[in-house]
Amino acid sequence: MVLVANQQFYTQPPFIEQVVFRYYPNSAAAFDAYKQGEVLGISQLTEDVLPAALAEPTLSVHTSRLPQMGLVFLNLNNPTVSFLQNEKVRRALMLGVNRNIIVSHILKGQAIVADGPILPGSWAYYEEIEKLSYDPDAATKLLNDEGFVYTAGSDVRSKDGQPLTFTLVHPNDETHTLIAQAIQSDWALIGVKIELQSVGYDSLVNDFLAPRNYQAALADLNTARTPDPDPYLFWHQSEATGGQNYSQWDNRTASEFLETARVSADFAERARLYRNFQVVFAEDMPSLPLYYPVYSYGVDVQVQGVRVAPLYDTSDRLALIDEWYLVTRRALEGQTPVPTTAP
């Protein structure tokens, strides 16, 4: 597909006068085409080709946060796991998950450790939000202080006869299964036992999250094409029954911040309200943020002016293409010049 620059564009005309899109079945095929000199860019570098792409001296790899978040939903209104209503137990669970290992080993570095419900890079993201590092000793102390202790012959903590055990339902693909198994191992170290239940993603949403028929669930929040950071749908009280507040978090203070922020026309006021919401979220920890996935793409060093910004859709990587420009190379005698096509 060939696109030609619009000379009537409302700002300055693009520097690159023509862009040719060539389509390949997968990232590996596109990378091979780049090495053969057929293209100057690769729209997505998946895990299988990323190491080779990073080693390619003429390819600049750009990475940006996707509009998604992986997290563990905790059902705060399920009487079979009433201990999840205790915010200190929830904090212990958060402290007991080694998110760095999940990001570096399972996700191959293609994610950012998550600390809250609003995506980093957004104007509403609060940089000073409390960040909990992996600390099983602190998790153990919290559980001890709350009276969850080991009984004779048991490797699972309990209190008043109720053991710290529950079921984590998760998508049945390989990546989510490995993440669920890592969480299971981490929590076993602090005396929490979970059973894993693997289901298809549609079933996870329709049979477990939507009817609130679960104890804990590993899932992804996708906010693609919604650049406004408003998290009302996922955490407001009114969405607890029938909406997308799957955790059924019932916090009036947090809900008031969300209510006011979504109707305010004052940008600074909205930022302040969302900052306050994130502080309350971090204190109460209604669910456990794990990671924000990232997206990597490659552009040849001949193409200059490429700027990386948060993605609200993968096509946003081309949002500033009018600022890109080509630095041509002088071909040696007898060599074929590199084609001047852009990704």
Can you describe what's shown?
The chain is α+β, with helices and mostly antiparallel strands. It has 2 domains: 83 residues, no CATH class; 226 residues, Dipeptide-binding Protein, domain 3 (Roll). The protein contains 10 helices and 15 strands. Strands 3, 4, 5, 6, 10, 11, 12 and 13 form an 8-stranded mixed sheet that branches. It has a 3-stranded antiparallel sheet with strand order 7-8-9, with no helix packed on it. Helix 3 runs antiparallel to helix 5 and helix 9 runs antiparallel to helix 10. The longest helix is centred in the last third of the chain and has 18 residues. The termini are close together. The C terminus is likely disordered.
Quick structural overview:
With 343 residues, the chain is α+β, with helices and mostly antiparallel strands.
